[in-house]
# Entry
Amino acid sequence: MIDPSALDALHVFIVEAKAHTYVGSGMPSLARRPGSHDLEYRSGEFTYLDSYFGGSDFIGQEVVYARESPVWAMNYYGRVLDPDRITAAEAGQVIKASLSILYAEGRFLGGFRCEVLGCSYHDTNVGSFTAFTGKEWIEREGVMVYELFYHGGLLK
# Structure
């Protein structure tokens, strides 16, 4: 459990870690489970681990540790809905470009929409980073071609 006085620092770290790993094309770390793709980021007392399985359809979990104790986590499942309109690689490019803009605002929740690479990226959620659920999706030519569901929050 994290000290309430450290919540702001935790939020800043989560945004920083997300920007330096998948979105920032960070170096993969040693896979901790067979078949997983793992990305790790450390700063100060915090460590972030994003571990996922799959490609065009994927599932994963992000965990933040404070001094080796898990304090925050998020689970997600995403998939390409229309492979004739968007490839997994293209969806990844749209997601990385969109989330780079969002993280530059110093946040990862709160609703977001942008137009990049000929697509419309959307994210909507309920709650704060301490307890939340949400969905991101990509539309191309007015058709939803990719979606991801996520949920997470503080661990006690």
Notes: The beta strands are 28-29, 37-43, 46-54, 57-66, 69-80, 112-116, 119-128, 131-140, 143-154.
